[in-house]
Write a structure and sequence with these properties.
Blueprint: E1 3-7, E2 22-27, E3 32-37, H1 40-46, H2 50-60, E4 74-77, E5 90-96, E6 103-109, H3 111-117, E7 123-127, E8 134-139, E9 142-147, H4 156-167, E10 172-175, H5 178-181, E11 189-191, E12 195-197, H6 202-208, E13 211-217, H7 227-242, H8 247-253, H9 257-264, H10 286-292, E14 293-297, E15 307-311, E16 317-320, H11 322-328, H12 337-350, H13 354-369, H14 382-393, H15 397-403, H16 407-414, E17 424-425, E18 428-429, H17 439-447, H18 460-466, H19 473-493, H20 498-503, H21 509-518, H22 524-546, H23 559-562, H24 577-591, H25 601-606, H26 613-617
Parallel strand pairs: 1-3, 2-7, 8-13
Antiparallel strand pairs: 2-3, 4-5, 4-7, 5-6, 8-9, 10-13, 11-12, 14-15, 15-16, 17-18
Helix pairs in contact: 1-2, 2-22, 7-21, 11-13, 12-14, 14-15, 19-22, 19-24
Bound molecules: tungstopterin and iron/sulfur cluster.
Tungstopterin binds next to strand 6, strand 12, helix 11, helix 12 and helix 13.
Length: about 625
């Protein structure tokens, strides 16, 4: 493989330890691999992970690019902690999203991130489109574009197994299934047969490049500032996490405990988010899962495994999470864990996002009930749901192809007022928390940087505890605080946020680990400033790609505002649109964006994003 060094002339900022300062840049059209020494300010001002992804997309993605064209940029971005710290076996996958048309990313647990780092790179960037199905194999600094013709059409699970057969079991693999190949708009990247990331269709971006998989292995020592301290902090933090109250219950149930909590709090989505409670919840909750659990798996370097494996109704193993079970269970009216696990397994094999899949199936069930489509699919009919899931993955039949586009497009096509109950924001299907009585969580979905995903602010547990019906400035402040912490620390460093969220592992560990790895002292305030920079850069990217913005784009669907809950202790509850918009305006104000939701010039300058101004001014009038 030929190598070109692409050096940049921007060396005014000293390089940090713990990062190689290099990314691999692969152009599949030209079959060209380059080593890119990325600018020093990337690490200082954007840290890694999502920060790198957003910066690369702003700097190199031609505005208006079709997400499924060769010009889209597919990014696998590690962070300074990847492969070095507790729960750091994660990597950010990102691109312009074919589902939303805006910024899209996900955070996936995979040995691939560690293999990439131990091979001497902090990121892999892929452009172009291969003439034939291919995969990228990286070993100790050498990258190869290899034929994946024999792998094309295989499930994500099978693909990984076969790549490991060729290159050895220690290699990290992230790949797509048939759904990614068939450009299903919510197809994901899958690893380890049960880790999946990139909800906004990053799998389809891979498919559009005819890239079946990426694989990496290496044994290079990542050059950290203080190796002894890095090792000590790793051992100490593992000990600390294992000693936390709640640890034992966590490894028993993991995220599955949320089913029972969701029911109690009336936020468990049921029947396409019509309700927040589900009569059959006991049959799909954490205890039900415990009774049929056969294994516990984890991402690499994890101290608190949460991958609960059960055998599905088809006899195959499936790894369950709360989101998967709520969206493929209660949200489609299905009260049978084995059948839910079967749908989950189909999603993992074909490489579809479980959240969006649950949403489009529920949408079809409701459309069938309302006779907006001719197909007959009843709530809870698991056989029909399985058939439909497979039809979507292979884009079979008119309904399968329609739903493969996601609920936004599906509702535009079938009409009949279905836009009110097409449960998405900006095109990304809403994850598994009903918000009829949770305005702050609704705002979290409205303002999440990738569309309606909970990863940036799982404010709902705080909101339920502290007064769920109020619309207040305090809620907006809390939301921004959570977005800053999650976006500034976990998505940039890159590490799993569960130790902090679920077990109370103190945030103070992260600046200490960062210092030992990079040699740079960072305060919590500096992390948060980086988070603000990334949030506003991502908003600038959306505005650049959409060419306009208005608060409606940050507003959840009408169902939560118009149709009250009819069941459970909160029957009668619904959101107030006017008050929601009052909170949204407060949010914009606090972020330094104008009343349309567009960053102000003064904010862009303050955050060191003045380079975005000329491009934005071609599309919108920026306010001071
Ligand atoms: C995440 C989203 C989630 S969020 C879940 S369950 W969750 C769904 N899992 C899917 C799956 O499984 N199979 C499938 N085919 N599709 C799926 N789609 C859904 O994807 C995930 C964990 C979880 S489990 C969560 S909350 C946390 N997310 C983190 C995050 O976003 N950042 C971070 N720094 N740490 C995180 N830790 C936790 O990781 P996406 P994963 Mg996933 C079978 O990636 O795109 O962010 O979507 O990555 O390795 O599966 O870990 O109750
Ligand atoms: Fe992965 Fe769960 Fe461990 Fe986080 S807690 S690193 S998601 S196994």
């Amino acid at each position: 493989m030929v190598y070109f060094y692409l050096c940049c002339d921007y060396y005014s900022v000293p390089r940090l330890k713990g990062l190689w300062g290099k990314a691999l840049w692969v152009d599949l059209s030209r079959r060209e691999v380059r080593v890119w020494e990325y600018p020093g300010d990337y690490a200082v001002n954007y840290i890694g992970g999502r920060g790198f992804a957003a910066k690369i997309l702003w700097d190199f993605l031609p505005p208006g690019t079709d997400p499924l064209s060769p010009d889209n940029i597919l990014i696998f971005a590690a962070g300074p902690l990847t492969g070095l710290a507790v729960n750091s076996g994660k990597i950010v996958v990102a691109a312009k999203s074919p589902l939303t048309g805006g910024y899209g990313d996900g955070n996936i647990g995979s040995q691939f991130g560690i293999g990439l780092r131990r091979s001497g790179f902090d990121a892999l960037i892929v452009t172009g489109r291969a003439r034939k199905p291919s995969y990228i194999y990286i070993e100790n600094g050498e990258a190869h574009i290899l034929s994946a013709e024999a792998l094309w059409g295989s499930s994500a699970v099978e693909c990984e197994r076969r790549i490991k057969e060729v290159h050895g079991g220690g290699v990290g693999v992230a790949c797509i299934g048939p759904a990614g190949e068939n450009l299903v708009k919510f197809s994901v990247v899958v690893s380890q047969a049960g880790r999946a990331g990139g909800r906004p269709g990053i799998g389809a971006v891979m498919g559009s490049k005819r890239l079946k998989a990426v694989a990496a292995v290496g044994d290079k020592e990542i050059p950290v500032a203080d190796p002894r301290e890095v090792r000590k902090l790793y051992v100490d933090s593992v000990g600390d996490i294992k000693g936390k109250d709640g640890y034992d219950f966590w490894v028993r149930q993991g995220t599955m405990a949320t089913v029972e909590w969701g029911q109690t709090a009336s936020v468990l989505p049921a029947y396409n988010f019509r309700e927040g409670v589900f009569d059959g919840y006991r049959l799909i909750d954490g205890y039900s899962m415990e009774a049929s659990k056969v294994a516990l798996r984890s991402c690499p370097l994890c101290a608190m495994p949460c991958g609960n494996v059960v055998v599905d109704s088809g006899g195959k193993e499936a790894e369950l999470d709360y989101e998967n079970v709520a969206m493929l269970g209660s949200n489609i009216g299905l009260a049978h864990l084995g059948h839910v696990a079967r749908l989950n397994r189909i999603a993992d094999e074909t490489g579809m996002d479980t959240i969006s899949l649950g949403s489009v199936i529920a949408f079809a069930m409701e459309a069938s009930e309302k006779k907006l489509i001719k197909d007959k699919i009843e709530w809870g009919d698991h056989k029909a749901a399985e058939r439909l899931a497979s039809d979507i993955a292979y884009r079979r039949g008119s309904l399968g192809s329609l739903l493969a586009e996601g609920v936004r497009i599906a509702s535009e096509k079938i009409g009949g007022g279905s836009g009110d109950w097409a449960m998405h924001v900006k095109g990304l299907e809403i994850s598994a928390y009903d918000c009829h009585a949770a305005p702050a969580m609704a705002l979290a979905y409205g303002t999440s940087p990738i569309g309606a995903h909970h990863k940036d602010a799982w404010i709902i547990s705080w909101e339920v505890r502290t007064g769920r019906h109020e619309y207040s400035e305090a809620k907006v402040d809390k939301l921004i605080e959570l977005q800053r912490l999650r976006g500034g620390i976990f998505e940039t460093l890159v590490a799993c946020r569960f130790p902090w969220i679920e077990l109370g592992f103190e945030l103070e560990w992260y600046p200490r680990i960062f210092k030992a790895v990079t040699g740079r002292t960072i305060t919590m305030e500096e992390f948060l400033e980086v988070a603000d920079r990334i949030y506003t850069l991502i908003r600038a990217l959306w505005v650049r790609e959409y060419g306009t913005w208005d608060p409606q784009m940050d507003t959840p669907p009408a169902r939560w505002f118009k149709e009250p809950l009819t069941k459970g202790p909160l029957a009668g509850a619904k959101l107030d649109l006017e008050k929601y918009h009052w909170m949204l305006q407060k949010y914009y104000e606090k972020r330094g964006w104008d009343e349309r939701g567009i960053p102000r010039k003064s904010t862009l300058r303050k955050l060191g994003l003045e380079y975005t101004i000329p491009e934005l001014e071609k599309r919108v009038t920026l306010k001071e």
